[in-house]
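Progress report, Aim 2. The chain analyzed during this reporting quarter is listed below.
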Amino acid sequence: MFRSNLEHTGTTTETVVPPLTQVWNYTTGGEVFSSPAVSGGIVYVGSGGGNVYALNASTGAKVWSYTTGSYVTSSPAVSGGIVYVGSDDYNVYALNASTGAKVWNYTTGNHVESSPAVSGGVVFIGSYDGSFYALNASTGAEL
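Predicted structure tokens for the chain:
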């Protein structure tokens, strides 16, 4: 999830040794403002073209994409085989991490640019409607 963990420390135990070289790139259908989430060898990222992409982390090949109704500037969170992400179309989406199929969506009162945090079966996310939501991670029901 955004900045690596629930504490959002942005740290990792991995060691990066220079020099760095580009291995692959992928052109999305719009600007990329979201931070990618990496899980199980897949990179998940949103774009200004209104898509969420799943890309092979080794090759950059598209595994799947899901089209929302507007920009996706929210950074995805991956938990329990589900990708959670917000969209400017006022929705929070839960997508199957393997296939990209929509599991559920929850409609808020405004844009959802905040990045979700997932803990204990609950998705926590804010909206420009001034609300902070706690959603059941399995069903999308508001808690």
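The chain has one domain: 1-143. The first strand starts at residue 37 and ends at 39. These observations will guide the mutagenesis work planned for the next reporting period.
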